[in-house]
Amino acid sequence: MPEPAKTPTPPPWAAGGVGRAPDGEAAERVPVAAPGGQPPTRGVPTGRVPGGGVGDSPIRPEAESKVNGAFDYASDLAFEGMLWGHTLRSPHPRALIRSIDTAAALALPGVAAVLTAADVPGKLHYGLIEADQPVLAPGEVNYQGEPVAVVAAETLDLARRAAELVDVAYEVLEPRCDAGEAVEAGEYFRYQPVRLGEPVTADAAVVIAREYEVGMQDQAPLGPESGVAVPTGDGGLVLHVATQWLHSDLEQIAPCLGLAPERIHLAMAGIGGAFGAREDLSVQVHMAMLALRTGRPVKMMYDRAESFLGHVHRHPARMRYEHGADQDGRLVYVKAHIVLDGGAYASTTEAVVGNAASLAVGPYKVGHVSIDAWGARTNNPPCGAMRGFGGVQTCFAYESQMDAIADALGLDPLEVRRRNALAQGDKLVNGQVVDAYDPTRAVDGQPFSPLRDLLDRFADIPVPPIPAGRDIVELPGGTGNTTHGEGVRRGVGYGVGLKNICYSEGFDDYSTARVRLELDGATGEPVAYIHTAAAEVGQGHWNLQTQIARTELGVERVVLLPNDTKAGSAGSSSASRQSYMTGGAVKAACEAVRDLWQGRDLDDGPIEATRVFRHRATKPMDPVTGQGDSHVQLALCVHRATVDVDVELGLVKVVDLTCVQDVGKALNPVALEGQIHGGSAQGLGLAVMEEIVTDGGRVRNASFTDYLIPTILDTPPMRLRIVENADPEAPYGLRGAGEPPTLSSTPAIVAAIRDATGLPLTRVPVRPEHLTVRRPS
Amino acid sequence: MSVATRADFHRPAAVGEAVRLLAEHPEAVPVAGGTDLMVAVNYRHARPEAMLDLTGLAELRDWTDEGDAVRIGSGVPYARITAELATVLPALAAAARTVGSPQIRNRGTLGGNLATASPAGDGHPPLLATGATVEIASTSGTRTVPIGEFYLGPKRSALGPGELITAVTVPKAAGPQQFLKVGTRNAMVIAVCSFALALDPDARRLGTGIGSAGPVPLTAPDAEALDLPWSSPGRFDDALAAEFGRRVAAAARPIDDVRGTADYRRHALAVCAARALRRVWTTAHDRSPR
Ligand SMILES: Cc1cc2nc3c(=O)[nH]c(=O)nc-3n(C[C@H](O)[C@H](O)[C@H](O)COP(=O)(O)OP(=O)(O)OC[C@H]3O[C@@H](n4cnc5c(N)ncnc54)[C@H](O)[C@@H]3O)c2cc1C
Q1: A-contacting residues of B 184-203, CB under 8 Å?
Q2: What's the pTM?
Q3: Could you tell me the domains of chain B?
Q4: Domain FAD-binding PCMH-type: where (chain B) (predicted)?
Q5: Res. A40 pLDDT band, cuts 50 70 90
Q6: Architecture of the domain defined by A24-71+510-614
Q7: In the structure, what pLDDT confidence band is assigned to residue B233 with cuts at 50, 70 and 90?
Q8: Residue A26 has pLDDT above 90, yes or no
Q9: pLDDT of residue A774
């Protein structure tokens, strides 16, 4: 990246609480000190690894400020002379725009600008994969909440009032809301088949054919979309944004503003959760347009309702599955017809469809496959990235199918999975060989099966007993006092998830890190400075970077420089890839610095190295057969859920989630456990409560009153068994860990509810009425 | 934002002053805990030009023992109702325990719940089941409204312009009471439906209250009239409980919405009402509750 235009000094909190650059302005924050209190090393390498390295769980650099409230999230930013921006959004899922009259809004005292599509300085469209999403609707709107105009005013309230005064004449059209119909009409972003062998129904002893449905889940990050655009005075801009991928934002923003990318500097603002919701642009271009127009800093901040309309969701899915198995429960063939609803614009639907297709069978061995997956274009809210990314929907279906096979044959659910588990050397349905384990490892002369290894570990973890004399908070319905034990039945179920880690299908996936080692002028200790553009979304990535530097360089003090576009691209904090990719880049840069340090004294000057890290190359999926080594790394997670269900009221209490996950290497056990807890809870949410409800394309529950996410009373104690089957190709042998538990907890919980109720349950989230009034007699 | 910078904020110290201010500034909106009002402001459903803060009115912030009833100041937060009144007003205390989260229960008040008059408000079913009365003050004096006449429609009540709710008087329990609230989450959830039941074994009377299953909170008079074996309580059986449940469900007038279907609400009310009756009956007749 070229150096950006001169930028105003950001306020100390603009970097979201990370330390400051060593050159230029003085460091505002005390650098991260390593625990352990070892005497400081000097200008020459000691070969000693201080505490707080890889495998330890030091306290996060931003922990204190996040706990005491000092941490500045994007929505906390404030600049001198700042205006507030607000977005006017379409109330209609589909309409033509006949005219827009901004006169009344502009006439309101305190309003500085009202901009529409006609004011977009550059390209009218942007997008993560395809540039099909209008910056502001040019003549038509295709989903409820599509931005139509933006306003800047002296206060947020004034900007909102002004937006209400913008007079838009819509000609309302009938929205297309059925994804299946859209596919039939040829309205889809991607179709991806997978073909293997020849699935023949007659060859199977049991055939299970069912339809499944997954509702639209939201990432529900607690921090709403927010940022500030600051004009540099010479036509350039500094954008302070909370995003998952600074450089991808820049690539999309610059053409829309008609500016060379060098004129725009992106600085990361504090992120309050992401989960995929910050992959697509939200406020970025809008606030930049307003700042360019007014010459003043412009802040935008969505409220909760706007946040629900202003970011993409998880694709809802309808899936028809047919599994054929032999007498022993071994899979003979799988057919699947998968329709994901991508909504109005492309976002990442193409990549999500690729995952849905290639992971459609899960970690099971099967010779004959016919899978068809589509990402439909409709007038529903746009859907894109969310933790699990195309792996979640099919996982619910294939795991439900595995249970149905076990049921039909009277097999234990673990046993049917064990019999079908892929082993080292076997192929996924895309033809990719499972090879990312120690090649010499075998069990009883058989190739090592990573899944069987995880399944076998449940043998010595008992299902929790039913305690006597429970308080109502321990029962379904909680303080609602709905049951004192009446109607309560217990159920147990399992779920297995298979997730690809890093970017698949031939994408050039890389990350960049710059590491500089120098002596602290005051103490004479060596200090490592790390500069990357990687987003700390709450996963603990900043901490991990410091751990890697301590391990690789043997220094205690590590300072993280603000994440911005002065560093090279780090790729997105998504696809469970940041430990692998930016972790890999920091490791490589540290190794380079360490090599340079040999035989040198830091008294002679600092040592610096920049490294770009790439994972092994992948291939696109064949458009007709779906074959191709499309994935980098595969990660597995298995859940056992224990639930109590009030079968008369249809209320569910998940009482235990036991999770066995292969993480390759636990780089930071505490952060890792947090990822597994959080991923499991998000899967729990999808299982029993989380759904954006739409009606004719309109969102009916854009609030935390009615979009329910699990509370602490809904989230059970979790027992984790962390397995470290190292991946010889990955840094430290790690396997990306953030997403897999989100896949497996949903089917495990639904299987447990089936066990308690005896109902087939083919839709998530399972609602009380699915367990009661719609219950077949 | 605009509220802080432009709206007038009145902070009376006594009820007399409060109603006078309200008469002088009809645009002023009372605010107690703010847990309904400020949500409405954030969502821009309300844009008050002025506010009348009730939290400085000591008279509203306490309850008094009136012998056979408790007079609860409209500004008493839920947390105190749960902690202090559970033995005398068990249904109301149980309902208070289900409201929101600890933060909401520390701020939110019964007065605010009544004035909002949402059919989903958790305070209403216990007040209906126990036959409470609402005390309302204005510059023309004080009037009391029986709870059954208070609710006029969704978010509409007998509270008129210039009026403040000062207190709610709730008869002390004459027997076991129950409150059950169905929600799709195990805490902090707006009711899909709720049900309160008060049993008075001496008067041989049942009181009912139904929440979130009609345009207003409802009672179930047919269910209250069910012929129960008062003289030989051992003859009470599941069939009677089920019949009670059916009658409660029949009294409901639910709709389909994002929180639940009308069919489910009726079904759940039948289940909850049957459970509630079984629980109060067994408690009253000294058998261990199920
Ligand atoms: C996160 C959250 C969860 C919630 N969960 C629940 C729940 O589970 N169950 C439930 O029932 N409610 C719930 N609520 C709603 C709310 O907390 C209750 O309705 C509460 O009782 C409102 O009381 P308040 O004192 O906060 O009212 P305020 O917000 O102060 O006032 C509400 C309305 O009443 C008027 N008002 C207040 N006091 C008086 C008075 N004395 N005289 C005349 N008018 C008055 C105000 O002008 C305003 O119109 C929840 C709210 C939130 C934010």
Answers
A1: 184-190, 192, 194
A2: 0.95
A3: 8-53 (3.30.43.10), 62-171 (3.30.465.10), 177-284 (3.30.390.50)
A4: 2-175
A5: very low
A6: 2-Layer Sandwich (3.30)
A7: very high
A8: no
A9: 61
Ligand 1, atom 3, residue with closest C-alpha: B100
Q: Which residues fall within 8 angstroms of residue B285, CB to CB, at 6 or more apart?
A: B201, B233, B234, B236
Nearest chain B CA: its distance from A379 CA (Å)? 20
Upper half-sphere CA count for residue A295 (Cβ side, 13 Å): 2
Q: Is domain A428-504+626-771 in CATH 3.30.365.10, yes or no?
A: yes
Nearest CA to ligand 1 atom 21: B113
Q: What share of chain A is helix, strand, coil (3-state, %, to 5)?
A: 25, 25, 45
Task: List, for residues A623-644, the tens digit of each pLDDT value.
Answer: 999 999 999 999 999 999 999 9
- Min Cα–Cα distance to chain A from B155, Å: 17
Amino acid letter, A44:
V
Residue B6's pLDDT is: 62
> Would the CB of B211 count as within 6 Å of ligand 1?
no
Pick one of 3.40.30.10, 3.30.565.10, 1.10.10.60, 3.90.1170.50 as the CATH number of A76-174+224-271+278-310.
3.90.1170.50
pLDDT tens for each residue of A529-552: 999 999 999 999 999 999 999 999
Q: φ, ψ for residue A205 (rounded to 5)?
A: -80, -35
Which two structure tokens, joined as six digits, stand for A148? 């139509």
pLDDT at A776: 41
Query: Is A369 buried (19+), middle (13-18) or exposed (0-12) by CB count in 10 A?
Result: buried
Shortest CA distance from A715: residue in chain B: B186
Would you state the structure tokens that stand for residue A488, as one six-digit string?
A: 């309560």
β-strand partners of A152: A85, A113
